[in-house]
Amino acid sequence: MRAAKGMSGRRARWAAAGLAGVAGLATLGQVGSAGAAGQVGFAAPTYVDKARAGGEPGIIHSTKFGDLVYTAHEGTTHLDREGFAGNSIVQFLCPGLTTADCYKNHVWIWTSDDHGASWQLRDEGLRYTGFSDPDLSEDTSGSIYNTGIDLANDSVFSSQDGGKTWPHGNPQCHEGDRPWLAGGKAGELFMTTDTDTGGGHQLFHSSNYGDSCSGTGISDNQNFDSKSGYSGFGKLVYDRVDGSVIEPAVFHHADGTVGVGISRLANAAAAFSGGSQTFQPVEVVHPTTVYSPFGAPLLISMDSAENIYFAWDTDERDANGTGGCNTAQSQPLVGGGPTPLPNHIMFVAGKHVGSGQWQFSTPISLASQGSARVLWPWSVAGTAGNVSVVWYQMDRMVDPDCDLYNGQPVPGVKTFIYEAHIGNATSPGRQITVTNASGRAIHEGGICDSGTTCVATGQDRRLGDYFTNSVDANGCVIIASGDTTVLDPASGGLRATSLPIFIQQNRGPGLTGKDCRPAAAGSVGATTAATSLPNTATGPNRGLLPLTALAVMPLLSWYRRKRR
Fold first, then answer.
1. What is the helix, strand, coil percentage profile of the chain, to 5?
2. Do residues 238 and 183 make contact, with C-beta atoms less than 8 angstroms apart?
3. Is residue 190 one of the residues assigned to a domain?
4. Per-residue confidence at 561, pLDDT binned at 50, 70, 90?
5. Is 454 a member of any domain?
6. Is the separation of the CB atoms in 264 and 280 below 8 Å?
7. Is residue 217 part of a domain?
8. DSSP three-state, residue 87
9. Total structural domains in the chain?
10. DSSP states of 110-174 as a string?
11. What pLDDT, in 10s, does the model give residues 519-547?
């Protein structure tokens, strides 16, 4: 994921703790419980793959072929070094254990033709290299796009049969870190990335299904002066009505405060063929804080009426406390970093009122738990006013980024997946139902938020830096996440990587106005997954790096330059 260069930004966010400056901060709207009749419910999590890694997963429904496509990081830098004990390192390098299906330097891809009941591994070919940073999108013709990166490339590739084969693409759309994709017209792809060769965050374009990309990009960042500026960052959206591209954006102010908003490029395709269009940023909320590793909202969602939505996790802290991560060592010591306070999942709706114009609602908090931390929201929109937002929610108030507190293992904090179902989202009378979508913990212990620095310090980075939701053919919410609760079958200890899981809405209204049918088995509150696997881990057991892991340390060291 993203390079560790963002650490100074984190310290700035700590200094800007609180949401006092958000004018008219609204409280949560009408909230229902998952158990009420006719309200939202989810089937128990099932495993997409029993061996391969599942960090930073993406999921999409093929509108043309009807199947589901799932992708995930290969696992090389989404590690917990504790999981290297015993034979786990064999599983890390050769996920198939008894096969030759070893490390291939490309992201994993699976497809399902039976609504997620079973999954088939797909191999897009070694030509399109890159173990990290997958992202899925679809153009108007139904072609699906994905991306993968290593230390020097952002590859892109496309499928014309619902993700089963990937005949188009190239290994170098551009160099950079953390690419995001948006499909446009037939054969058209837009990719943003944080370039390393100058220009900062930029947008690139392909008009031939990813076979080649524009040689130069369009910058979506600007320094207003020596101390302030903005940058686009996160998953962009392509407006199929007016051909514009919209990104989430973060704004840095001279006084150290942070704002969030959007940045829009009108008539985006023409901008790559001699047009004079430039990105136009709009700050929507200031001041605020952002906890996400990227320091910005992770994506823009657009519904069928061109209304847009974005969400982010705040990072309130007590600047005088010492209960957070130590900023120098990414481990809380005596005299550690600012103490975490109750934080929020913030949500803003933008009602479309004209070409390139939105009327933004007052920010509302979807989650604020006094005894827990919430992090990494993602969202998807359906028909007008229907939105789903998911996030990770811990059951204790700790700094998620820390594995140790004053030299002791982090408390047995458990992480669950929560979902907010929002109807009439652009109206003051919106309806919101919040559900524990996973029903059980999908992780126990700390969640390292510091990129590949986590590998060097031995922290737990198996979940990566985000997870995603989407909609299926009926508009029902589907969720992709990593899961770390399954022990390694060879050693009986922690696994080195997470496993990919799939969660599907099976009750209540979908995002397109249809009701989601109940599943035959499995519902919210289940304590085990539908797919049987070995015993789950009971808690983290941090220790020194086992000697059996030393053989792969040169590989990990090589990857430390990038936060992937």
1. 10, 35, 55
2. yes
3. no
4. very low
5. yes
6. yes
7. no
8. coil
9. 1
10. EEESSTTSS-EEE---TTS-BSB----EE-TTS-EEEEEE-SS-EEEEEESSSSS---EEEEEEE
11. 443 344 332 233 334 334 433 333 322 32
First-to-last alpha carbon distance for the chain, in angstroms, is 2
pTM value is 0.87
- Residue written as token pair 């969720």: 479
Q: What is the pLDDT of residues 393-452, one digit of tens each?
A: 999 888 888 766 555 666 688 999 999 999 999 999 999 999 999 999 999 988 888 777
Does 174 fall in a domain? Answer: no
pLDDT above 90 coverage of the chain, percent: 59
Residue 59 lies in domain: 4-100+230-559
Q: What's the pLDDT tens digit per position in 312-348?
A: 999 999 998 888 876 555 455 555 788 889 999 999 9
DSSP 223-269: ESSSS-EEEE-SB-EE-TTT--EEEEEEEE-TTS-EEEEEEEETTHH
* Class of residue 147 by CB neighbours under 10 A (exposed 0-12, middle 13-18, buried 19+): buried
Residue 409: the pLDDT is: 64
Do the beta carbons of residue 481 and residue 441 sit within 8 Å? no
Helix ranges (H only) for 7-143 are 7-15, 88-93
Query: What six digits make up the tokens of 137?
Result: 């999108």
- Could you tell me the two tokens for 439? 């029903």
- Above 60 in pLDDT, residue 23? no
d(CA 391, CA 479): 10
> 48, 58 in Cβ contact below 8 A?
no
